[in-house]
Amino acid sequence: MRPSVTHHRPAQGAARRPFNLLIVEDEKRLALSLAKGLTAEGYAVDVVHDGLEGLHRASESPYDLVVLDIMLPGMNGYRVCSALRAAGHDVPILMLTAKDGEYDEAEGLDTGADDYLTKPFSYVVLVARIRALLRRRAAGGGTPVIEAGGLRLDTGARRVLRDGAEVPLTAKEFAVLEQLALRAGEVVSKAEILEHVWDFAYEGDPNIVEVYVSALRRKLGAGLIRTMRGAGYRLEAPR
Fold this sequence. Notes:
Blueprint: E1 6-8, E2 20-24, H1 28-40, E3 44-48, H2 51-60, E4 65-69, H3 77-86, E5 93-97, H4 102-110, E6 115-118, H5 123-140, E7 145-148, E8 151-154, E9 159-162, E10 165-166, H6 171-182, E11 187-188, H7 190-198, H8 208-220, E12 225-228, E13 232-235
């Protein structure tokens, strides 16, 4: 017998065509809390607690976004994400995990996830990430590509081309570069990079950003990213 799915729908008077979200999370209290909050935001939310059921639901129903935990019974989130991408489903996937570390993030992104959030996380940050992914999907209509400063970032494939030549980057290096490229020509503060790449729960040394910027300069060229002392970093984007 297939596990049940819990449906949460916005109250009467909400938007006529709300975004449809699927939450695949085995911590039932957390899943219910997220569903209630997101329903109050105007989303239509379905909840399942098993990886196999999550794969079935995401494969058979036209969801606008999937919030996918990694540690799941039946099938883990990595395998669910990989199976969806292999089947040609391009629904945005936001992965949740209690793990922490670059290896876990790299594995999640390599299987095709669009974003990654480590537990415990701020509900406000979660909603902001969901809105950003939905905006990106609506604006791009496909895999978003960013071009700036002689760079071409394929955010779906996580590939970077510098003047036509591919430059291998780690998941974290790509994420830092993406934040700078999205605001090419503008100053992006260290705090903003930390919030978007490491999320609010990061309690390590904030100078970790400098380590990744230095790595990007070695791989992409020293003059591409400029340090604005006391303010942050700017990706040079000549017209």
